[in-house]
């Protein structure tokens, strides 16, 4: 059988039902195989759109996403999604075409050293040198992408090898002696963590994206409720604990709530679960949580004590560890009353510093009001994707995520242009869900072209552009930290998004009136097919509160 | 070291001491890797990306065709050695990492020194060479090439001795090392 037909067999064996890609010279054989392989292929307009769509699909479904591109520019266009998937631990397999082996290293047409270019951005990568290796390599790629701490895997297949004839034998097991991710947590350490939790007077559960990707939200909720622990989450962890909830402090970090950041600041014990103490969380590291001891549960040993020393590290899968931790904790019979004082301190912060903004007195739409309207209109029940910037932070602050895998954004890399293609991928993976993209007027233009894909394929995403006419987050920083010298942040009035939507074959709308906003949002959500809504909001609204870069969390402003 | 999974719980003090441990001593990491294209690039790239400086690096085959050994040294006073080994361990092609204890390790490097040696200095050079158990591997009217094998300290001591006499150039392999005793490195 042709090697590319074996590729199709392997994809099917891995349960792949849809891929996102764009053909070119170096993957023509692969596309010939797709012609009648029975795998849905979504033809994107730009490889980056396909890569982010595969990420959105993976984040929404929990399955491995697949993205394809040809050699050279096809592969280099995938670099951003690859790095994005690395930073946010998204399981995606990238299949890139490569030029003929005899031409490698000669600067051949559309040649790029894909493995070399992507090496710092992948969990693993391999260039095929023998076509008989292809089935093994594909199954290894899926195994590595989805297990342990998930991440991107790149397989680079030279075009001549993909046409080769091989004797295909289904692969039943992978053998990777250098790759054995830890699963079970150490029992003694789990007991030690339970004791620490039982003894803590001011504990906080600090939850990251690992709880979402590790499908451990139920287990987390059980532990939190049983111990009556306060819970906060990172940008990536939103939805891991149901919001709103009396034990939910809101997001922490740079634009988190004061209650969450102050609780971290005064905590005597912080239990980090699938989180990595990123600089957007800690603020000034030397001032971070000065009174706390740390339990750190993570599947990646290299995260333990990378930024913050862990007193009780537990390496393994949160889904397995949390129930054991809960069981050990229960046996200790800790009195919930010991947390009363802590809760009244937290309640004081919550009462004194709720998330707030000054609403307009006329019909102008505040971006926060827009997000609240979208939250109400969707009943909190949609899959929400976002781009990167102010609108992303307002979504994280004002949209309550009741469950995991409903919030899909680019956290680590902060990729503008992520939201629209990610929504497309999420909708393909979850066709019965309402999928909404919250975009910025700057970000959305970075992968706008995928609206054509949505129109052609009937992928009914609803895109709300929080249009303030600026690269808003940069403008905010220039206002606050650069004396208001606005340098290259004014996006003007272009393009006309409504006309653009029409040109792409989607429905365009423009919303400018606060008084009818929620109804208008509902109308947009109820419109068939892809919809692009240009919502004109207050141009110079800032995201608050905020940890000023280089400052301690306790000195939040705004 | 770098056994997989979570080890038994050490005491709090041990953990605090362990965290970001900068030992101040030189570390010799002996790394077994799959003999596949690009593995050295992955290891070297990881060091560059994470800001770890490699002092010396030596790569060669092992008794198993499918496996190569990378021996590299770095300064434990500059880098948290724990982060270095954990990040290395994440590379799929890396099979095993051992942070060799200096006391339980035999380490050697080979250096070639090209020295000026005319009739005035040749005798002194040869004398130093003998003290260091060096071998003269090339000789011409006005120069010598000396081969020195030993620990880095020894090589550096030799360098200090011959430099004033006229060092033309020096080529070093970087250290390779093997654990003492019966157990495998």
UniProtKB/TrEMBL annotation, chain A:
InterPro entries from the UniProt entry: Acetolactate_synth_lsu (IPR012846), AHAS_TPP (IPR039368), DHS-like_NAD/FAD-binding_dom (IPR029035), THDP-binding (IPR029061), Thiamin_PyroP_enz_cen_dom (IPR012000), Thiamin_PyroP_enz_TPP-bd_dom (IPR012001), TPP-bd_CS (IPR000399), TPP_enz (IPR045229)
Keyword Transferase in annotation: yes
Domain (Thiamine pyrophosphate enzyme N-terminal TPP-binding) ranges: 1-115
UniProt keyword annotations, A-Z: Amino-acid biosynthesis, Branched-chain amino acid biosynthesis, FAD, Flavoprotein, Magnesium, Metal-binding, Thiamine pyrophosphate, Transferase
EC number(s) per entry: 2.2.1.6
Cofactor(s) annotated in UniProt: thiamine diphosphate; Mg(2+)
Top-level EC class: transferase
Catalytic activity reported: 2 pyruvate + H(+) = (2S)-2-acetolactate + CO2
Ranges for domain Thiamine pyrophosphate enzyme TPP-binding: 387-535
CDD domains, per the entry: TPP_AHAS, TPP_PYR_POX_like
One family name in Pfam for this protein: TPP_enzyme_N
Thiamine pyrophosphate enzyme central domain sequence ranges: 190-325
Gene Ontology biological-process entries: isoleucine biosynthetic process; L-valine biosynthetic process
Pathway: Amino-acid biosynthesis; L-isoleucine biosynthesis; L-isoleucine from 2-oxobutanoate: step 1/4; Amino-acid biosynthesis; L-valine biosynthesis; L-valine from pyruvate: step 1/4
SUPFAM superfamilies in UniProt: DHS-like NAD/FAD-binding domain, Thiamin diphosphate-binding fold (THDP-binding)
PROSITE patterns cross-referenced by the UniProt entry: TPP_ENZYMES
Transmembrane regions listed in the UniProt entry: none
GO molecular function: acetolactate synthase activity; flavin adenine dinucleotide binding; magnesium ion binding; thiamine pyrophosphate binding
NCBIfam families: acolac_lg
Family classification: Belongs to the TPP enzyme family.
Name of the featured protein: acetolactate synthase
Organism expressing this protein natively: freshwater metagenome
From TrEMBL, chain B:
One annotated GO molecular function: acetolactate synthase regulator activity
Domain (ACT): residue spans on this chain: 28-102
GO BP terms, alphabetized: isoleucine biosynthetic process; L-valine biosynthetic process
CDD domains noted in UniProt: ACT_AHAS (cd04878)
Matching InterPro entries: Acetalactate_synth_ssu, Acetolactate_synth/TF_NikR_C, Acetolactate_synth_ssu_C, ACT-like_dom_sf, ACT_dom, AHAS_ACT, AHAS_small-like_ACT
PROSITE patterns (UniProt xref): ACT (PS51671)
Pathways per UniProt: Amino-acid biosynthesis; L-isoleucine biosynthesis; L-isoleucine from 2-oxobutanoate: step 1/4; Amino-acid biosynthesis; L-valine biosynthesis; L-valine from pyruvate: step 1/4
Keywords: Amino-acid biosynthesis, Branched-chain amino acid biosynthesis
GO cellular component: cytosol
Pfam family, one: ALS_ss_C
Similarity comment text for this entry: Belongs to the acetolactate synthase small subunit family.
Protein name: Unannotated protein
Organism: freshwater metagenome
